[in-house]
Amino acid sequence: MPSEKTRLLKPSSTSPPLVVRSTCTSTLFFTWLTPLLTLGSQKTLGFDDLHPLSVVHQATHVSEQYHATWHAFKTTSVAPAKPSLTLALFQTFGWRFAVAGLLRGIRATLLFTAPLVLKAMIGFLNDSSAPISDGYVLVAIIFVSGIVQSLCIRQYTYLASEVGMCFRTAIQSALYHKLLVIAPSSTRSSGQVTNLMSVDATRVQKLTIDLHSIWVVPYLILLSCVLLWREIGVSFIAGLVMIVLYIPLTLYMAKHMKAIQKQVMQFKDSRTKLCNEVWGGIKVVKCQAWEDNFVDIIQAKRVVDNSRRSFERGRSPPRSPTASPPSWPLHRLPPTSSSATTSTSALH
């Protein structure tokens, strides 16, 4: 009889983890994944085809790191203050998240390379006395900038997803420990804790990919305003006003969409609960010949669910209006000149 410490799933492959044995170039271009993708194109992958996880990605290591940080928070916190889950997570895995944020910032900055270089290229084409080497340099800058942007966003997505996986593992481990010691009379039932482990932990994992947008979006807006100020002067304020006026509408639509999504989830929960009850009592349903009745009930709930989903898609928030149309009429008011170079770079 196997002991409790025996692994239920143990890969037969003795090869080291892919990321551990990969080189810098392999990690940068993700070529360490090529053999697995090639094998997957030839046959259906099985558990034995997968390489083992590296130590830093294993649930045991992640859980031990988090619980050590959490224990330190509990011992240093003074009542009535309570240790913060967010601070514990970021103190444990925050350095990788910071590296991902640096890559996101580099990519956001390089987004403005194209309009600036395009302006210089138009000026180069208009100047017949400019050396041909300047054109090659400008083209090379655009080419290299595009490559660096692609590398940065790919590595950012990988690192952010990696941190999200660690967040989810740590939260699930903490909730599992809580589930083992929860009292029967507790206000939190074991079912609620299970939902936290399956739903909320996954939401935290998905949140890490977009979490850096909190500072990246204002950074992009600030750089855009500075560049527009240089190109068209005070006229850019009209576009900025349009963006500011659009914020309340966006917040209202987001609040409305949240209410609709809550209704959709309620309908989905009701339909899922009914399906589970039918499957749980399928013997009684078959004996009483109630199949058609339950099919009609489930189908009716499905129709309502699909209609609410269609309504949710139709009421999705509209796209943000561009700031260029209101800016260009005001650009004619100040004594500034409007050229093809200014127009092209400002529109970008």
UniProtKB/TrEMBL annotation:
Any Pfam family the entry gives: ABC_membrane
Location (main, coarse): membrane
Spans through the membrane: 105-124, 136-153, 207-229, 235-254
UniProt xrefs under InterPro entries: ABC1_TM_dom, ABC1_TM_sf, ABC_transporter_C-like, ABCC_6TM_D1
Entry keywords, A to Z: ATP-binding, Membrane, Nucleotide-binding, Repeat, Transmembrane, Transmembrane helix, Transport
ATP-binding recorded as keyword: yes
Molecular functions per Gene Ontology: ABC-type transporter activity; ATP binding
Protein name, as recorded: ABC transmembrane type-1 domain-containing protein
Source species of the chain: Aphanomyces astaci (Crayfish plague agent)
